[in-house]
Write a structure and sequence with these properties.
The complex is a heterodimer. Chain A is α+β, with helices and mostly antiparallel strands. Chain A is about 20% helix and about 35% strand. In chain A, strands 10-11-12-9-3-13 form a 6-stranded mixed β-sheet. In chain A, strands 14-17-16-15-18-19 form a 6-stranded antiparallel beta barrel. In chain A, strands 5-6-7-4-8 form a 5-stranded antiparallel β-sheet, with helices on one face. Chain B has helices at about 30-35, 90-95, 120-125; strands at about 10, 15-20, 25-30, 40-45, 50, 55-60, 65-70, 75-80, 100-105. Chain B starts with 8 loop residues before the first strand and ends with a helix. The chains are: A alpha+beta, B alpha+beta. Chains A and B meet through helix 2 and helix 7 of A and helix 1, strand 4, strand 6 and strand 7 of B.
Chain lengths: ~375, ~130
C-alpha cells in the first residue's frame, strides 16, 4: 500500500503543540506549521461537530492588528467587502477578500472590528507572509496606521457544533448566547481573557476565541472538560467542504476572480470608496460568466479528489477544486469549477477517477449546513 | 503496538499474505489501517485479472486520501471480497479476517519465500 511520507522539516508550532501530542494527535506539516490532522479519527470528529461540539486549534492562522486614525480607510481600500457595514463601536466581523488590481484573489480573510480605529484581520496560514508584505506595502500611504502581526503572541481556538455556544457560555462571564452571527465581544472564559466571535468554518454554530498564547492551554483543557472533542485538520476540511466553504489554493487563487468562486456577494462595488480591484471587478460583475464553481455529487461510491477532470459530452469541461467522502451524504462530493453552460443544477457530468469516468450530477450547495 | 500475525507474510508496502497451497489471500496490515484511518471506499480488481508482482491491484480510500494497493505476488485473481462493498469498516475493525481483499492463484509458488516474515515486517514498522 502506498502512503504519503510526512516530511517534518523545521516547522512552526502553536502554543497547543504539546497538548496535541499528549492527547494522541497525529501531527503533520501544514503551511509551515506542525498541526494535528486527527486525534480519534476524521469520522468520529466530524460526528462530534455535527452532533455536539468539536474543538479546533486554529492558531496557525495569521492575526494582524490594524489600528490608528487611518485604519478604517486603509481596510476599505485593501479589502473588497464594505467595512462601513461593521458598527463604528466595534463588536462585529465580516468575511472579506484581498484582491489584486486585476481581480484575482490574494487571500480570503475575516475582518474583526474592535472599535472605531481598531481591527484584527485573520489570514490563511499559507498566505501569511505574502499578505503581510502586501499589507505593509500599502500601509506606507497612510500616516496614522499601525500594523502588528500578533500571531506568535496569541492563540485562536474554535468551538463548533450545536452545543458549542452553550458550552462556551457555561464558562463565560458574559452571555455568549446573545451574540449574533459574526458578532464579537470581549469576555472572560474559564478565567482567560478572550475576544470571542460567533464565527467558524464548519457549517455549524460556534465560537472562535482569541487569547494570549500562554493562556491557550488552560482554555483548551477547560473546554475538553466540558465535553468539546478535539478535532484535527482532516475533520475541519471535510466539515468546511460539506458546508461549501471555500479554501484558498483550492476554490480560489490569484488567477481566479471572486465571481468564479461563488464569492461575488463579498464584493461591494457600490461601497462608495475606491478599493484595489474595483475597476476590474465592477466590469466582471455584469459580464457573462465563462466558468462557475458548482457542487457535484457522485452517483456511485467512488470519491472525487482535487484536480480530477470533469467531463461532459466526452469533453473536459472543468476540474474538481476540492473533493472528499461526505459523512453526512454518505458518498463522494466535490466542488468543481466548470464551463458555465454545464453548471446548472441537475446537469449530468462525469468525473475522471484513475482513468475511468464516473457519473455525477450538479447539486445545490452547500451539501450540509446547520447554522 | 499493532497486530502482526506470526504465520502471515508481509510487504514493505504494508500488504499481508496468507498462504494456503497455491492460493494466497491478501489484505492490508493492522499498522496500515491505523495509519490510514477510517476506510470509506475500496476499489478492487475483477476476478480473472492477471497480476504481475508490484502491479497496482486496487485503491483504498480514507476520508482524506487515496492509497494504492500493490500485488505482493504474480498470479490470477480468483476471488474478491465483495462483502467489503458498503462495509469498508471491516478493514479497520478486522484487517486480517473480515478485511481480506483478494485471493490470487500463484503463478510461481516459490515467490512467497521472498516476502517478509512477521519478524522482518515488525522491524520494518519499528515494533
Amino acid at each position: 500500500m502506498g502512503m504519503a511520507q510526512d516530511d517534518l522539516a523545521e516547522v512552526l508550532r502553536t502554543p497547543l503543540h504539546d497538548t496535541h501530542v499528549k492527547a494522541g494527535g497525529r501531527m503533520v506539516p501544514f503551511a509551515g506549521w506542525e498541526m494535528p490532522v486527527q486525534y480519534a479519527g476524521v469520522l468520529p470528529e466530524v460526528r462530534a461537530v455535527r452532533e455536539s461540539a468539536g474543538l479546533f486549534d486554529v492558531s496557525h492562522m495569521g492575526r494582524v492588528r490594524v489600528r490608528g486614525e487611518d485604519a478604517f480607510d486603509y481596510l476599505q481600500y485593501l479589502t473588497v467587502n464594505d467595512v462601513s457595514r461593521l458598527p463604528d463601536g466595534g463588536g462585529a466581523a465580516q468575511y472579506s477578500l484581498l484582491c489584486l488590481e486585476a481581480g484575482g484573489i490574494i487571500d480570503d480573510i475575516i475582518v474583526y472590528r474592535l472599535g472605531a480605529e481598531e481591527f484584527i484581520v485573520v489570514l490563511n496560514a499559507s498566505n501569511r507572509d505574502k499578505d503581510l508584505a502586501w499589507m505593509r506595502g500599502h500601509a506606507a500611504n497612510y500616516k496614522h496606521l499601525i500594523l502588528e502581526d500578533e500571531t506568535d503572541q496569541t492563540a485562536l481556538i474554535a468551538v463548533q457544533g450545536p452545543k458549542a455556544v452553550e458550552m462556551v457560555d457555561a464558562l463565560s462571564d458574559r452571555d455568549v448566547t446573545m451574540l449574533p452571527r459574526f458578532g464579537l465581544d470581549e469576555t472572560v472564559v474559564a478565567q482567560v481573557q478572550t475576544l470571542a466571535a460567533r464565527t467558524g468554518y464548519t457549517g455549524e454554530d460556534g465560537v472562535e476565541m482569541f487569547c494570549r498564547a500562554d493562556h491557550a492551554r488552560a482554555l483548551w483543557h477547560e473546554l475538553v472538560d466540558k465535553g468539546a472533542v478535539p478535532c484535527g485538520l482532516g475533520a475541519r476540511d471535510t466539515l468546511r467542504l460539506e458546508a461549501a466553504l471555500p479554501l484558498y489554493g483550492h476554490e480560489m487563487d490569484e488567477h481566479t476572480h471572486p465571481y468564479e468562486a461563488r464569492l461575488g456577494w463579498v464584493v461591494r462595488t457600490d461601497k462608495g470608496s475606491d478599493f484595489i480591484g474595483k475597476r476590474v471587478l465592477t466590469d466582471l460583475k455584469d459580464a457573462p460568466r465563462t466558468k462557475v464553481l458548482v457542487g457535484i455529487e457522485m452517483e456511485g461510491r467512488a470519491i472525487p479528489r482535487e484536480g480530477y477532470p470533469v467531463m461532459a459530452d466526452g469533453e473536459k469541461v472543468g476540474h474538481v477544486t476540492s473533493g472528499t467522502f461526505s459523512p453526512m451524504r454518505g458518498k463522494g462530493v466535490a466542488m468543481a469549477r466548470v464551463a458555465a453552460k454545464h453548471g446548472t443544477k441537475g446537469t449530468a457530468l462525469d468525473v475522471v477517477i484513475r482513468e475511468q469516468r464516473h457519473p455525477a450530477r450538479v447539486v445545490p450547495l452547500p451539501f450540509y449546513k446547520n447554522v | 503496538m499493532s497486530s502482526v500475525p506470526a504465520d502471515f507474510r508481509y510487504t514493505k508496502s504494508h500488504e499481508w499474505i496468507k498462504v494456503d497451497g497455491d492460493v494466497v489471500t491478501i489484505g492490508i496490515t493492522d499498522h496500515a489501517q491505523e495509519e490510514l484511518g477510517d476506510v470509506v471506499y475500496v476499489e478492487l480488481p475483477e476476478v480473472g485479472r492477471v497480476l504481475a508482482n508490484d502491479d497496482v491491484f486496487g485503491n483504498v480510500e480514507s476520508v482524506k486520501a487515496v492509497s494504492e494497493l500493490y500485488a505482493p505476488v504474480a498470479g490470477e485473481v480468483v476471488e474478491v471480497n465483495e462483502a467489503l462493498n458498503n462495509a469498508e469498516a471491516a478493514i479497520n475493525e478486522d484487517p486480517y479476517e473480515r478485511g481480506w481483499m483478494i485471493r490470487v492463484r500463484l503463478k510461481n509458488p516459490d515467490e512467497v519465500a521472498s516476502l517478509l516474515t512477521a519478524d522482518a515486517y515488525k522491524a520494518e514498522i519499528g515494533e
